[in-house]
Amino acid sequence: MVERRPGLTILSHVVLLLGIALVVFPIYLAFVASTHTRDEILKVPMPITPGTHMIENYTSALLGTETQGAHVVVGRMMWVSLVTALVISIGKIAISLLSAFAIVYFRFPFKKLVFWMIFVTLMLPVEVRILPTYKVLADLNMLNTYAGLTVPLIASATATFLFRQFFLSVPDELVEAARIDGAGPMRFFKDILVPLSQTSIAALFVIQFIYGWNQYLWPLLATTTEDMYPIVIGIKRMIATGDAAVDWNIVMATAIMALVPPAIVVILMQRWFVKGLVDTEK
Amino acid sequence: MAAIHFRNIIKRYGKGAKVNQVIHGVSAEVKDGEFVVIVGPSGCGKSTLLRMVAGLEEISSGEIAIGERVVNDVEPARRDIAMVFQNYALYPHMTCFDNMAYGLRILGVPKAEIKTRVDKAARILELSHLLERKPRELSGGQRQRVAMGRAIVREPQVFLFDEPLSNLDAKLRAQTRLEIQKLHQELGITSLFVTHDQVEAMTLAQRIMVMNAGVMDQFGTPEEVYNKPATTFVASFMGSPPMNLLKHAPGVRAGTILGIRPEHVDFADDGWLVKIEQVEMLGAERLIYARIGEEQLVLRVDEGVPVPALGASVRVAARQERLHWFDAGSGKRLANT
């Protein structure tokens, strides 16, 4: 629709601005709260311009303070979250690429059955199989380890399907050209399929990184010691229940810091996205 | 360089009751250094035949030998062949140089030699200034040349072309046709070229293999195929407009078919009485569509010859020395002509 009506332009911009305000304002407020002392925040009305205690709030969050809830060190939790999210996203991509490769390019017994089994797991998210998974992990002594945090979340039917669809769209002639060039299956995978899948990989990485970073329920079960808590759980634990006062300034500083890595991933990968979208010839 | 031997090649798809045979015993020999074009309509099995030489399709029965070596169970990469695909099949993420060098790298050819070989091929194909570009930055004709370059650098015994010109526009096609011919003269490598375009076949081939429904109808030089078609199919497939095939015209015995090319029928004082239905102007010549009894007869006459009015009845005569006789049942050329 190409219409030149100023009224419409203004209206659409107003709607968009309102939308942005709706999304940005809470984050802004969190940032403001992270720059005041606890007492200032609790005053009514709460200040809506940044205060002067930013640096001390952030250092005490990073290095850990005795808050009412627990002794929480954000630095360590960020590290745990980062490792978890990276292992989950990279693991998922690696496994999905390989299984999609097997499904699309190889003939093996019970191929259909395998395909449908993967398909069925789409209907079984972690939450559904959480008890048996917990039991297995506990028996294998994998609680409170990175492996325990990540392995149960790595298998991904969604990513396998995404790659399968992509591989199916790769022209057969390319496969044949590679065969004539003498590329064996793994060589073809490494030299041709993976480079061609770059954009899908980038897209999946973003989605899976955020998925991994935002995990709450599973780490809640799989970790019991402070040093293995990811940041999402850390934030929860800082908010004490009962009468105790909550250090909202520290909580908000932590929340803002927890926002940063996924935001960086999105921003960095977005370039790849766009590059990939522009570059692909089809 | 090597000859290619086809020994009673059969190709079937499927098993048991659902078996579908698409090639019915092709035997032929392509000589060392020869340029052979396999031509036929879609679905006649010409591409399948080529892909069996490449090793991309299994051979159900029979033998293919390249040189002295039977290659039925040899991997494509070890058959010492190179193939140019219809859609070029260039690796989109690699530069032209890498596209051409990829096969050599896998073979473990030293870097310096890869460079010399790619540079040489690029020079022949006038691609030297494009080596650092990726396929998407090239035009169709340039991609085509890169695909040929990829075949050349392998220095194979046999070139296989699978309708490589069908994605180019008419002008580029004619130009590339000449380039392929030049290339073959320079390198002298045995080549198999599949196409459905009879003009391509006539211009490129030293010998033409005409395929029809999985059977090789004729294998001969362009002159033989044009002047002495072995079957009515070859007669009607080669040449545009195709040869007139008449069953009921005066003078045609029952059980035979008379073939006469449009350019070999002239207006005459006595001969067949035909009714003019349509006239097409082609520039230097005209096509005249006439009706003789129930059948259509096409004449190709020079542009200077006066054309009778539409609907007029005129007499035409076929040149006696240019008549072709076929058996009506089998469609095969009768031996005494």
CATH architecture field of chain A: Orthogonal Bundle
Across the major sheet of chain A, the strand order is 1-2
How many helical stretches of chain B? 8
Task: Detail the poorly predicted runs of chain A.
Answer: none
H/E element sequence of chain A: HHHEEHHHHHHHHHH
Order of helices and strands of chain B: EEEHEEEHHHEHEHEEHHEEEEEEE
Low-confidence spans of chain B: none
Give the tally of β-strands of chain B.
Answer: 17
Average pLDDT confidence of chain B is 87
State the helical fraction of chain B: 25-40%
- Which percent band covers the strand fraction of chain B? 25-35%
> CATH topology of chain A, anyone?
MetI-like fold
Q: Report how far apart the termini of chain A are.
A: 26 Å
How are strands sequenced across the largest beta sheet of chain B?
6-7-8-3-9-10
CATH topology of the largest domain in chain B: Rossmann fold
Largest sheet of chain B: 6 strands, mixed
Determine the strand fraction of chain A and express it as a percent band: under 5%
Walk me through the topology.
The complex is a heterodimer of chains A (282) and B (337).
Chain A: H1 6-33, H2 38-42, H3 54-63, E1 65-66, E2 71-72, H4 74-105, H5 111-121, H6 130-139, H7 146-154, H8 157-169, H9 172-180, H10 185-213, H11 217-222, H12 231-238, H13 248-279
Antiparallel strand pairs in A: 1-2
Helix pairs in contact in A: 1-13, 3-13, 4-7, 4-8, 4-10, 8-10, 10-13, 12-13
Chain B: E1 4-13, E2 20-30, E3 35-39, H1 46-54, E4 61-66, E5 69-70, E6 81-84, H2 96-107, H3 111-124, H4 140-153, E7 158-162, H5 170-187, E8 190-195, H6 198-204, E9 207-212, E10 215-220, H7 222-227, H8 232-237, E11 244-246, E12 256-260, E13 265-281, E14 285-292, E15 295-302, E16 313-318, E17 324-327
Parallel strand pairs in B: 3-8, 3-9, 6-7, 7-8
Antiparallel strand pairs in B: 1-2, 1-4, 4-5, 9-10, 11-12, 12-17, 13-14, 13-16, 14-15
